[in-house]
Amino acid sequence: MLTYRYHIVNVFAEAPLTGNALAVFEYAYEMSDELMLALAQQMNLSETTFIQHSDKAHAKVRIFTPGGEMPFAGHPVLGSAEVISRLKGGQDLMTLETKAAIVPLWFRDSRWTLQVRAATLRRPAASNSQLASMLSLPVADLKANSFFVDSGNEQLLIRVGSRESVTRCQPRPEEMLQHAANRFGLAKVYVWHRDREQITARYFAIVNGMLIEDPGTGSAAANLGGWLYAHKQVPTRTVIAQGDQIGRPCRIYLEVDENGRVFVGGRVMPQGMGEIRI
């Protein structure tokens, strides 16, 4: 019988039992892809990560949802950094290898921050009217310049005119599959509104045929940084409020400098640990 040790951490959390939960398996060097997927399905969280050896960075992080592996996601990388730091006695500066890129991270002011690669943008084929219908919103609620943005995890970003519009949106799964599928055929939508120095956002995806809402999405925050740079709304420093509508409030710190460098951060709170025996 083999024993695998894991940690549960909450990322983007400002208080216990908030934020976006993550399971992190330590020392997953000999795990097969099939076993990692099975363990992610067993944990049944939005993502589960597996720490492995890397010749290019301090560690490699494999990221799995219950449906499969992801090249990059923000909250799994930040949460894994906290676990790796604890395993290494408090390391506060590191690089982590993901399938998308080598990600630099550091711990400062009680939160972990990562830097992402430059984003690419492309316009969706759908009209504003079609996107509004997809979100069950009046077309007047949508602002211009919806884009697919990719800084490691391509998603459709849709800007709306008010926080109330963010709260009211109710995506239609069949229309998401038609209008919000990225270049890999995965339907992912990030709806956001900026009010001075705070952004309100919600993130939706179709996973295994079901509509899910993620409480705190670091990759989407990174993509938003790319959007802000492309639209010359930099330098900027802001906080993204996400997850309140589903009872898991997250606060994501986003900074974009005048050179287009995007930094995403948040607090990581350890909540527990355990073992799985197979």
UniProtKB/TrEMBL annotation:
Gene3D superfamilies: Diaminopimelate Epimerase, Chain A, domain 1 (3.10.310.10). Belongs to the PhzF family. The active site is at residue 47. The lineage of its organism: Bacteria, Pseudomonadati, Pseudomonadota, Betaproteobacteria, Chitinivorax. Pfam families: PhzC-PhzF (PF02567). It comes from the Bacteria. One of its GO terms (cellular component) is cytoplasm. InterPro entries: Phenazine_PhzF-like. This is PhzF family phenazine biosynthesis protein. GO terms for molecular function: isomerase activity.
